[in-house]
Amino acid sequence: MSMTSVAQSKNNPAPPLEPGPVPLVRLRGVTKTFRRGSEKVEVLKHLDLDVPRGDFLALMGPSGSGKTTLLNILGGIDRPTSGEVLIDGEPLQRMSEGALTRWRARHIGFVFQLYHLLPVLTAEENVALPLILTRLSAAERKRRACAALALVGLEDRARHKPGELSGGQEQRVGIARAIVTDPTILLCDEPTGDLDRKAGDEILHLLHLLNNEHGKTIIMVTHDPRAAARAQHTLFMDKGVLSEEPESLT
Amino acid sequence: MTRFGLAFSAFRRHRGRVIFTTMSVAAAFAIFTVLAAVEEGLNGNMSLASAQRLNTGTMINAPLPVAYAATIRTIRGVVAVTYQSGFDGYFRDRKNNVGVLAFALPAALNVYPEFTVPDDQKQNFLRDRQGALVGDVLARKMGWHIGQTVPIAGGPPQKSGSTTWTFHIDGTYRTDLPTGYQEFFIVNYDYLNEGVAASPIKDTVEGFTELVDAPGDIDRVARAIDARFANSSPETRTQSEQQESMSAIRQFGDVGAIITSVGLAVFASMLLITGNTMANSVRERMGEFAMLRALGFGRLQLALVVLQESAILIAAGAALGVLAGWGVSRLMAPAMSSVLRDFAVTWIAVLCAAALALFFALLTGLLPGHRIARLEVATGLRRA
């Protein structure tokens, strides 16, 4: 089995779980259904996906295609209606909510389109938020937050509040917050969606750096083909179905 | 950044709202603290009342014949009887009020052991019909000293027509009773009664005070006194000092009930204001809480953060309020101590305030905390 991101469709069914190198992310038969009144809406339809460790995968597709729902399921903040989700060999669907929350704190770094920084905290305090959940000393938390800020090139903005930063700088703080716990996977939901081209390029460069030089596995949802071009692989999603080629969705 | 720091950071936004909410909490707790000081004073007064003293007066507040004393002395269980009359006079200037209290001597000093007088001064006073025992507070206020002769104006007309009475200060007394009791000007009833011009008040008293042999006997003795004068004019009404204190407390109690109602209303509004502040604050930050859940904060952890916010808000307001209430009570104390000796903020009141603050913090934090605990991350992030 190839160690690149692979999506399987009904016509190209996933191989059975086999011995050998296990991908970092493995989805089998993942379905997600929402209820809208009396209507059942199937957002994800029997998805199979393998993402190897160290990959940088872009997920593209029109709005409402299910990209963010898939990202939420991968991050353990939503559960599939059916199917199996294995991250680093751990089956998420069997975890209790508490266990899933603790797992998320250890293994997942989220980067949001709208940054979701706390406006009353400084950049350093925002970055240190996930470290509250650890047993690290205050000094060590501060050291790690500063290191993360340095990695995204904002060490001189540590005492600034989000309102005093540009959009690109805010997103870099968001990325620093996502990596401060050294998570297994970075899940980025339209990280450049709210930025101008120059700031967007800087963020993509930073993500590329994290993937290339620090070996971070990144799964990024994006509408932007230029952003997707910076990833190692791109998968396309439409109406809850994943494909390697955009035209195969039509 | 710590969990407490995270809870505290909520107050860095909408500072005006936080200040006004804290002030409303502080106002409620300030009222509570002053009220507690009043209650302490009322309870203190009750404990001062002697369990062995009876007071005899009339239903219509009319003077009683001094001759009743002889009859009262014959009633079984009565150990000593004194009676009192008096007038509100002044020394030199009408602003220098002096409450002249004329007692039957020496019985009064036995009936009221709370007034402590050095023995030599007591003997001088008992020997001198024109003598006066002055509360040490009043003596200091007027600048009097033992041996001084003082004119007190504003009394009942004497046979000579003068309304100014002259007394010798033979001693001063001390007492732990409220400051009002520390400013009496005690004189001999016989001197006043003999000197007064013929009038309806001659040979009358305002009331009798009896010392009873045992506290358990006090109700029987009271009934016996009133029964003895049942067909006299005027009839008497005898109550134990504790009953009188209770009546006085009930009068205060009505005032207390009003203040309590006001206090409850203030607490209720405080709860509404604080609850509303917390609810708004949490509603505005649903996206932030969803983000924190995504970062790995548990439902309970975030609910506790909200509870901490509520606790910080109420604790700050309560601390300010208790401090303000304590300050106000200190300012009021000189005026209040004349009627309520024990008027003061006690540690028990402070502990009660702390317990109330904890209760209100739970009350105002529970609903928003519950809302946060139920938050679905994906939904919260979408709405942000």
Task: Kindly describe this structure.
- The complex is a heterodimer of chains A (250) and B (384).
- Chain A is α/β, with parallel strands linked by helices and 250 residues long.
- Chain A has seven helices and eleven strands.
- Chain A has helices at residues 67-74, 97-107, 123-128, 138-151, 167-179, 197-212, 225-229, and strands spanning 6-8, 25-36, 39-51, 56-60, 82-87, 90-91, 108-111, 185-189, 217-222, 233-238, 241-243.
- In chain A, α4 (138-151) packs across α5 and α5 (167-179) runs parallel beside α6.
- Chain A is globular, with a radius of gyration of 18 Å.
- The two termini of chain A are 27 Å apart.
- By secondary structure, chain B is α+β, with helices and mostly antiparallel strands.
- Helices cover 55% and strands 16% of the residues of chain B.
- Chain B has helices spanning 3-9, 15-48, 68-73, 107-111, 119-127, 136-142, 189-195, 218-228, 241-284, 286-295, 299-336, 347-373, 377-383; strands at residues 53-57, 64-65, 78-90, 97-103, 131-135, 149-152, 165-173, 184-188, 204-205, 207-212, 237-240.
- In chain B, the strands form two sheets. Chain B has a nine-stranded mixed β-sheet with strand order 6-7-5-8-4-3-10-1-11. Chain B has a two-stranded antiparallel ribbon with strand order 2-9.
- The two termini of chain B are 23 Å apart.
- The model of chain B has no long low-confidence stretch (mean pLDDT 88).
Question: What structural keywords apply?
Answer:
heterodimer, A: 250 residues, alpha/beta, 6-stranded mixed beta sheet, 5-stranded antiparallel beta sheet, 11 strands, B: 384 residues, alpha+beta, two-stranded antiparallel ribbon
| N-to-C series of helices and strands of chain A | EEEEHEEHEHHHEHEHEE
Helix/strand-derived class of chain B? Answer: alpha+beta
What are the low-pLDDT stretches of chain B, counting only 5+ consecutive residues below 50?
Answer: none
Order of helices and strands of chain B: HHEEHEEHHEHEEEHEEHEHHHHH
Strand content of chain A: 25-35%
The number of helical elements of chain A comes to 7
